[in-house]
Amino acid sequence: MSDSVLQRDAGELRGSGLTDTNTAFVEFRRVQKSYDGEILVVKDLNLSLPKGEFLTMLGPSGSGKTTCLMMLAGFETATHGEILLDGQPINNIPPHKRGIGMVFQNYALFPHMTVGENLSFPLEVRKLDKATRQAKVKRALDMVEMGDFINRRPAQLSGGQQQRIALARALVFEPELVLMDEPLGALDKQLREKMQFEITDLAHKLGITVVYVTHDQTEALTMSDRVAVFNDGVIQQIAPPDVLYESPDNSFVAQFIGENNTLEGEVIQIDGDTCQVKLDSGDVIDATPVNVSAVGDRTRVSIRPERVEANKKRLQKGAHTLKAEVLEFIYMGDVFRTRLRVAGNDEFIMKTRNAPDQDRLEPGQMIDIGWLPTDCRALDA
Questions:
Q1: Where are the strands (E) in 35-171, listed by range?
Q2: In the chain, where do the E strands start and end?
């Protein structure tokens, strides 16, 4: 991206008050959605975004995230509740009058139009004069480094180029809010990662508000200021990426975000911000109580693979140690990925960085592994 263009445009947008984050810019107030009058796909959603935030709605298929995006865009109507944009209710405002930019997975470019004509179309709908349209089209194409492609048709562009044009078209009329529905799903891994950084960089430099929908956890963690994790029509947790990963609120979030180890057991003692859990294997470990409230509660403890350590020199004071059998050792270049049998769990994963003092393990080998109690969270069973 051209920094001079982005900084100029960001200045203009800041001048309009777009980066003021003191008040909510997008709000869902007790929003529900049902398609058949019985089953709620979105259940009592309360959510607010400040101006300039990049929020990702993340969740499995059928979790309600895309329905929320479509209600915000105006393509679906809320069954109950209110949606506000910049303090104004928009439930009864048609999509084309909401002033929202949209980017879809399939690009939705008009095949019979050139790139320039595709970008000019939303400006024509808004009845801007030709000179203004040309200036805005040029600026939007410069933002995504596609100025030289103004006279080409979509069929003459690669997938990545088409996605850049789709993004430019969403930005050409200078919306304050841009919605993106799985926009990178059709791209290969390398191009997708490149576009992730480009979209995030552009959004932050322009100060626009973005609501982004994906089922890709890595994409959500990489791009977002905050992530809202959906399941069964409910936000399970909304937090910055690092908080979401390091401190999941429940078992669903822990399992859905990144790789995670779990061990089943029962709470036998609670003392403030620590608890003791007797695993089904008989081992007793300490954990941070999150979704447990009383002795006798069943729990599923969560430990991230990179927090597990087998090198005694690296095990800190206070670390738990358990016996483990090596089932599989995989060399992955920068890290070693080891599958272990731990406390009856044959899918327990340990990730260790490739370092001179890190042992390469053999299947069948018995080792001691450990982690800190603060890295172990007692969640719902």
A1: 40-50, 54-58, 80-85, 88-89, 100-104
A2: 24-34, 40-50, 54-58, 80-85, 88-89, 100-104, 177-181, 209-214, 226-231, 234-239, 261-271, 274-279, 284-289, 298-303, 320-331, 335-342, 345-353, 366-371, 377-380
List residues bridging with 352 in a β-sheet: 336
Please name the residues in contact with 371: beta carbons below 8 A apart, sequence gap of 6 or more: 303, 307, 308, 309, 319, 320
pLDDT tens digits for range 43-57:
999 999 999 999 999
Distance, CA of 246 to CA of 257 (rounded, Å): 10
The pLDDT > 70 percentage for the chain reads 92
pLDDT value, residue 317: 64
Has residue 343 got a pLDDT over 70? yes
- pLDDT for 168 beyond 80: yes
pLDDT(272) > 70: yes
Other CB atoms within 10 A of residue 357 CB: 7
Tokens of 380: 């719902």
